[in-house]
Design a protein that fits this description.
Blueprint (H helix, E strand, L loop, with lengths): L1 E6 L2 E6 L3 H15 L4 H8 L3 H8 L7 H11 L3 H7 L12 H7 L5 H22 L1
Antiparallel strand pairs: 1-2
Length: 131
């Protein structure tokens, strides 16, 4: 996307990367699924409300460190954000069920916790049956 901004005495061309709006929409979707306000997510990620809002609208391209903070606050894997930001090519296969649950961006934090508890109980039960 290309936008030309003209202010008396200044002309600027703003080129928006196609991955940034997708990243922002994804972060907003994850925030909504987690039932977090912009202010709450920004606080948890250690960034300002306006900066998070600009990221969600595709106006800012956050650093890897900021993406890591946002991922941590959303309880998702940072790699999911790195890929959408164009910082990382497709990641390799997920090594375990626990990692698959944690990396699933379609699940809310509560759903992830419930699945993890169920999985852990099944594994414990299987180990007890083997003994």
């Amino acid at each position: 996307m290309l936008a030309i901004v003209s202010i008396p005495g200044y002309n600027a061309i703003i080129v928006k990367s196609p991955t940034v709006p997708d990243l922002g929409a994804f972060i907003k979707e994850q925030r909504t699924r987690s039932a977090l306000s912009v202010r709450k997510l920004a606080d948890q990620a250690g960034i300002s409300n306006p900066y998070l809002s600009q990221i969600e609208r595709g106006l800012r391209k956050p650093s890897a460190e900021i993406l890591k903070s946002i991922a941590r606050a959303l309880s998702i894997r940072a790699e999911a954000l790195y890929e959408r930001a164009g910082l990382l090519e497709g990641v390799g296969e997920i090594a375990s069920i626990r990692e698959a649950i944690e990396s699933d961006t379609e699940l809310t934090p509560g759903q992830k916790q419930a699945l993890m508890q169920i999985y852990t109980s099944f594994v414990s039960e299987s180990l007890q049956e083997e003994q």
